[in-house]
Design goal:
The structure holds two protein chains of two kinds. By secondary structure, chain A is mostly helical. Chain A contains 22 helices and two strands. Chain A has one domain (7-501). In chain B, α1 (4-24) packs antiparallel against α2 (28-53) and α2 (28-53) packs antiparallel against α3. The chains are: A mainly alpha, B mainly alpha. The A-B interface holds A 129, 132-133, 136, 140, 143-144, 147, 150-154, 156-161, 163-164, 167-168, 170-171, 174-175, 177-179, 181-182, 185-187, 230-231, 234-235, 298 and B 8, 15, 18, 22, 28, 31-32, 35, 38-39, 41-42, 45-46, 48-50, 52-53, 55, 57-58, 60-61, 64-65, 68, 71-72, 75-76, 78-80, 82-83, 85-87, 95-98, 100.
Chain lengths: 515, 100
């Protein structure tokens, strides 16, 4: 095949955009009240096709396009595949969720695809302008999705909070880019590393990096920038929370890894201290905050803050091992968190009749398979062996220990112990005998047993459970890919450092071959 | 000629005013406008640095920021309308259905 590099490099994004626009057009001509399921299937087919193309791109080596602003390499392909998988699992889970109750579900499928395009752009761009545009495409789509049940007051409240704090964070990120441009004279990540060696204002460069870390810290909901997370996750529809607690975070972490490790390698001793503090704070705030929550979605929101903290631990490690551990952790976290929220979607339904931990009491008697899956995902979130969560934590903490951050690993392990309490409290409730008064019980039994799990949602649940299990017993394949991604970023980093020592030489553009 | 530093200081002040207003103000629309103020402070920084480095990169960035800010405003105002429909208020202190 002889496709120009410019097209080949961004083919996954082009396909998703085209499918998204197509869905919007069909949605406009469909009669209100007719089924939107076919549009959902169209979105799934488009995403799966994208995944195959990303897989194919892996064999083409490093592709650069659009004057070096896009770089498709093993690192970005890892995130493309991950985002694609999360989107497919989410779409499978939401096919029946919006059926019948939301008259405009087609827009939701289109928004998911547009959001995925933005996240994929974030992962593969090495120019901060493109990163910014990708970040905004994904953020604006998720702002709308958070408030998709627009007749409910809590949904629009969740949406406005997400929007205001998200835009606030974007302003910080942008100011960081502006200061980087001022300090180094460039917004290209490789050129920033070169410019850093000759900069006359290293303090401004560090301030710029700190601003960008603040902006991205909001997006990944790391403490102390986490305040929006519980409210937004509580009010947003459950499948959307499953998506937005994993895919945009993965993309933001990809950007953070690229900016810190290959953009500012000479400042690693400084920013790794920031990451140390953020990691320790996020783990502690997330886990302690989750202890006193009664709403299940709110509890999982705090748990996602804690998991962002575990992930940030990897940033304090040596570059290659750290990046590989972070990539693996993101994959494991995505599998188990999407799964957990898929269960919450099935239990609660569109109107979320069951939402507190007490409502889940005796769930195992009524919906045994769903409870078993929930138990599996929660055990993985704790980090029990034979689940993806265990190996994720294992690699992250090992990489931190290797680089001598013993205390951070100790804080992380203590936090994992604290986390057991609230996950097991929910599990205990699920497997306890129902204690409700008869009337209430009958009502809920009627309500929940009426809805069996639909086939697509079941497929989605099985896929996420299989992914979590596979990452726990056969982590080899994903670990191999993660290592490959880590090597790729490390090569970029070494090249930046080499270019730094001879500042006259331009950062050589990578080989692009489309043959 | 006005030194670049003056523009940067002005931009930093505008950005700080934006942060202050975001944290203090209670009306959703005012908060939204304070974000716009922060974005425009960033634009001013970009233009000043573009002038300093004699590069157009910074100015191109400003165009993109403007376009994205417009898109964000469209979505933001739509969300504000939706919240006004359900709650009949724009005061952020009263938008507190979910408590910690």
């Amino acid at each position: 095949m002889n496709i120009p590099t410019q097209i080949m490099a961004l083919l996954p994004e082009y396909i998703l955009t085209a499918v998204g626009v197509l869905i919007m057009l069909i949605e406009a001509v469909l009669k209100p009240g007719t089924s939107r399921k076919s549009l959902g299937w169209l979105a799934i087919v488009g995403t799966v096709a994208t995944g195959f193309i990303s897989w194919y791109q892996l064999r083409l080596g490093v592709l650069t396009a659009f004057s070096g602003s896009i770089q498709v390499d093993a690192f970005s392909i890892f995130f493309h595949l991950l985002i694609g998988a999360v989107v497919v699992a989410t779409l499978l889970g939401s096919l029946d969720y919006f059926e019948g109750v939301a008259s405009h579900a087609g827009e939701y499928y289109a928004l998911v695809l547009f959001g995925a395009v933005g996240m994929m752009l974030m992962a593969c761009s090495v120019e901060l302008l493109m990163v910014f545009i990708g970040l905004e495409i994904s953020s604006i789509s998720t702002y709308i999705m958070a408030g998709f049940r627009k007749s409910q007051a809590s949904a629009s409240e969740s949406s406005i909070k997400y929007f205001l704090l998200g835009s606030f964070a974007t302003a910080f990120f942008l100011y960081g880019i502006a200061l980087t441009f001022g300090a180094t004279g460039s917004t290209n990540i490789a050129a920033i590393a070169v410019g850093l060696s000759t900069t006359t204002t290293p303090l401004m460069a560090f301030l710029a990096l700190a601003m960008m870390i603040i902006g991205l810290g909001f997006k990944v909901s790391a403490a102390p920038f986490h305040v929006w997370t519980p409210d937004v996750y509580q009010g947003a529809p459950a499948p959307v929370v499953g998506l937005m607690s994993t895919a945009p975070k993965a993309a933001a972490f990809a950007v953070l890894l690229r900016i810190t490790f290959s953009g500012f390698p000479s400042m690693q001793h400084r920013w790794s201290m920031l990451m140390w503090a953020m990691a320790a704070l996020s783990m502690t705030v997330g886990n302690l905050g989750a202890l006193k929550q009664t709403d299940v979605k709110r509890m999982l929101a705090y748990s996602s803050i804690a998991h962002a903290g575990y992930l940030l631990v990897a940033f304090t490690a040596f570059p290659q091992a750290g990046v590989a551990a972070a990539c693996f952790y993101i994959a494991a976290y995505a599998a188990m968190n999407v799964g957990a929220f898929a269960v919450v979607t099935q239990v609660g339904g569109y109107n979320e009749t069951l939402r507190t931990v007490d409502d889940y009491q005796g769930l195992a008697m009524r919906r045994p398979i769903l409870s078993a899956l929930l138990a599996f995902f929660l055990l993985s979130l704790i980090g029990i062996p034979f689940t993806g969560g265990f190996f994720g934590k294992f690699y992250v903490f090992t990489s931190a220990l290797q680089s001598g951050h013993v205390w951070l690993a100790v804080i992380g392990l203590l936090n994992s112990g604290v986390a057991c309490f609230y996950y097991l409290r929910l599990l205990g409730c699920v497997f306890a005998k129902p204690e409700h008064s008869e009337a209430h019980l009958d009502e809920t039994v009627c309500w929940t047993s009426a809805r069996a799990i639909s086939i697509p949602a079941g497929i989605g649940l099985v896929l996420t459970a299989a992914a979590t299990l596979m990452l726990g017993i056969l982590p080899g394949h994903v670990l191999h890919l993660a290592n490959f991604a880590g090597e790729r970023l490390d090569a970029d980093r070494s090249r930046s450092i080499a270019a730094e020592s001879q500042p006259i030489a331009q950062a050589s553009p990578t080989v692009s071959d489309s043959k | 000629m006005v030194p670049t530093a003056y523009y940067l200081i002005l931009a930093a002040m505008l950005f700080s005013i934006g942060i202050g207003a975001f944290l203090i103000k209670r009306n959703v629309i005012t908060i939204f406008i304070s974000i716009e103020l922060m974005l425009n402070a960033v634009n001013l920084t970009f233009v000043a640095f573009a002038h300093m480095w004699h590069q157009v990169n910074g100015q191109i960035f400003v165009f993109f920021v403007m376009v994205v800010a417009a898109a964000e405003a469209a979505v933001g105002l739509a969300i504000i309308i939706s919240i006004f429909r359900t709650r009949r208020t724009l005061n952020v202190d009263e938008i507190n259905l979910m408590k910690s």
